[in-house]
Amino acid sequence: MTKRIIGLTGGIATGKTTVTNYLASTYNLPILDADIYARKAVSLGSPVLGAIAQRYGEQILLPDGSLNRQRLGEVIFNRQDERNWIDNLIHPNVRDRFLKAIAQSSSQILVLVVPLLFEAGMTDLVTEIWVVRCSQEQQLQRLIQRNHLNTEQARARINSQLSIEEKVAHADVVLDNSSTLEVLLKQVDVALVTTCSD
C-alpha cells in the first residue's frame, strides 16, 4: 500500500498548529514540520547560516552566533527579492529532510506541515492537500495577538504568502477555522475518514 501523505498548509495564523496537534494527539500521526527543518537548516555552524551571515553581515547574528530571526524577518518581509534569495537557500535543504523522513517512516499516514507548500513547490511530496482557512479579519487579529505585531507588520506577513483563495483553489480538503474549535476538529475527523476511503 502506498503511503498517504497529507500536506497541511494554510495562511499564517489560520490554525495549522491546532490541526497538527490534534492529528498528533488524537490519531498519533507522525508530523513532519517544515518550520522545524528550516530551523535546523540555519542552525549554528551550518553552511546555510554561513551564507546568510556573508550576505547580511554580522548584525544578522545574535551574540552567540545563531541567527537573529527577528532581524532577518524585518529584511525579508519587506523585500521580495531578499525573501526569494533566502527561500532558494533554505527550501532545497527542507525538501531533502522531508524526503529522508518519508523514506525512513514505517507509518502508512504522514502529515507534512508546510506553510509554503505551494510557494516552495513541494506539492509533489504529498498525496493530498489540506488547507486551513479563516476570515481575513480573524487571521489579522490572531496574528497581531500571537506575534505582538502592529496592523501594518501583520499585513506584510500575510501578504508575503500566496493568498488563501489561491491555496483553497488547489486543496483536496478545506478546513474552515472561522467558527469554534469543536467545529474545526470535527472537519478534521471527517477529512481523515473520507479522503481515506476515496
Question: What is the distance, rounded to the nearest whole angstrom, between the alpha carbons of the first and last residues?
Answer: 14 Å
Report the structural category: alpha/beta
Mind summarizing the main beta sheet? 5 strands, parallel
Helical percentage: 40-55%
Enumerate the spans where pLDDT stays under 50 for 5 or more consecutive residues: none
Strand residue content: 5-15%
Number of strands: 5
Shape estimate = globular
Oligomer: single chain
Strand arrangement in the largest pleated sheet: 2-3-1-4-5
Question: What this model shows, in words?
Answer:
With 198 residues, this protein is α/β, with parallel strands linked by helices. Helices cover 54% and strands 13% of the residues. The chain is built from nine helices and five strands; from the N terminus they run E-H-E-H-H-H-H-E-E-H-H-H-E-H. Strands 2-3-1-4-5 form a five-stranded parallel sheet, sandwiched between helices. The longest helix has 25 residues, at 80-104. The radius of gyration is 17 Å and the shape is globular. It starts with a strand and ends with a helix.
